[in-house]
C-alpha cells in the first residue's frame, strides 16, 4: 500500500486524484451493450438465448429460462442445513431492520382543504444477481427482502448460469427472501429482457442489483424506461484508526475489501506512525493465508493507500471528501467523531464492528453508494421499492381561499387556460 503523508495545506484534489476510482465505461463497451439491448428489444427471447450461448456457453430454450419449483426444492437438498439456517438468520435480521423503514401514507386538513401523500409499492421489480462460481446469496437477500417488505407483489430474479452452473445457495436465498420468479439469464441481455420484456419474461418497473461493467452500463442505458437503484462501482473501505486500534483487526478489514476484485479500494487514515508500521506487518502475515492473494495484491498495488494525517479531525475531513461506501471508525471514542461524519454509505463504530458484519448479518443493507456518490445518495432501502403520489382535495369553500393567488400566478406565466380552469369554478 502506498503511504502518503499529508499536511493541513495539501489540496484535496491532489490526494483525491490518487485514489484511482474507476471512471465511466469505455466507448467500446457501451457500443457492445447498446447492440445487445437493441437486439433484445427487437427479437426478445431469441436474442436472449443467442447471447446466453455466446457469453455463458449454455444452450437453453425459452421454456427452460424460468426455474421450476422442483429445482428450488432440490437446491435445499444440495445446501448444508447449517448454511440454510445461516441464510435464514440473515434474512430475518435484514427483514427486521427494513420493517422499520416502511413509509406510510399521510394527509392533513386545513379549512376545507385536504392535502397528503399516498405511498404505494411498485408492481414488479427485477433483481440482477451475478451467478456461476462467484455467486453472492447475500446480495439476493439484500435486494429482495426490502422489496418484499415494501409490498412489491412480483419480484423477479435474473442470474446467469455460465457453462450450466447454477449455484444452489442463490436459489435458497431467493426462496427465503420471497422471490417470485427466477430466470437463468445474465449479462446485458438480462437487463434488456427485464427492461423491455420478452414473451417469457414480462417487463419490470425497476431493476436493482450488482453486476460487471456490462451490466452496470446496461442499467444506465435503460434508465428512464425503467428505474434503477444505482450504478455501482468497485467496493471501497476507509478505516480511520488511532493507537487504540488492534492492527490485526485493521489489516483484516482492509484485506477483506481488497479481495473483492482488482479495482477495489482499501484506505487507512491515521495519525499514528506506530499503527502504520504494525498494520503493514499484519497485512503481510494475513495475506499469505488467503486464497484470493493474487487479487488482493493487485488491488492493494493499484489503489491501496495509507494516509498519515495530523489528527483525527483531519482524518474525518478526508473521509467526507472521499465519501466512501464503507467507513470504519476504529478509534477509542467513535461516538465523538460520528457528528463530524457527513458523507458515507455506512459507518461502522468501534473496534469490534467489522464491515463484514454489514455485508451479511447486521441487518442494514449492504447495497451502498460507491465512487463518492454517498455525497448525494443513500443505501438501498424500502423506499426504493415504493412510489409516492400527492393527494389534493378542495371543497368550494377551500377553493375560494386560494383562487386569487392561483389566478394571478397563472396570468404571470401567460397560461390563461389555467386561470380559466380556476375561474369557472368560482363564478
Total number of helices: 17
- Please state the second-level CATH architecture of the largest domain: 3-Layer(aba) Sandwich
Q: Kindly report the spatial arrangement of strands forming the biggest sheet.
A: 1-11-10-9-12-13
- Report the top-level CATH class of the largest domain: Alpha Beta
Shape descriptor reads: globular
- The parts where pLDDT drops under 50 for at least 5 residues are none
Spell out the CATH superfamily of the largest domain. Answer: Nitrogenase molybdenum iron protein domain
Work out the radius of gyration: 25 Å
- The CATH topology of the largest domain is Rossmann fold
Report how far the terminal alpha carbons are from each other: 76 Å
Report on the biggest sheet. Answer: 6 strands, parallel
- Structural class by helix and strand composition: alpha/beta
User: Mean pLDDT, nearest integer?
Assistant: 95
Beta-strand share of residues: 15-25%
Count of all domains = 2
- How many runs of DSSP E, i.e. beta strands? 14
State the share of residues found in helices, binned by percent.
40-55%
Structural overview:
This protein has about 425 residues and is an alpha/beta fold. The chain is about 45% helix and about 15% strand. It is built from 17 helices and 14 strands. The chain has helices spanning about 10-15, 25-45, 45-55, 70-80, 80-100, 135-150, 170-175, 185-195, 215-220, 245-260, 275-285, 295-305, 310-320, 335, 355-360, 395-410, 415-425; strands spanning about 1-5, 105-110, 115-120, 125-130, 155-160, 180-185, 205-210, 225-230, 235-240, 265-270, 305-310, 325-330, 345-350, 385-395. A 6-stranded parallel beta sheet has the order 1-11-10-9-12-13, sandwiched between helices. The longest helix is centred in the first third of the chain and has 19 residues, at about 80-100.
